[in-house]
Amino acid sequence: MRAVGSYTAAGRLAVASEPLGLEVAIGTFQGGEYLLHMHVAEAALPDLRDWETFEGFRVLWLASSQ
Asked: Can you give the three-state secondary structure of 2-66, one letter per residue?
């Protein structure tokens, strides 16, 4: 059921990070945990920490490929 929670958390994270968030990848299993990958504009990256937690999931901020 943890995977289902990751979908809910990803949706809330996307809404909470507007307008920064451009895309979110969910349900990535890494070393026994699910990660949320949030893609943002490259200019926004310096203002964000590498890792953050949101609703118990780690968030990895990545530059968008746009």
From this structure: HHHHHHHHHHHHHHHCCCCEEEEEEEEEECCEEEEEEEECHHHHHHCCCEEEECCEEEEEEECCC
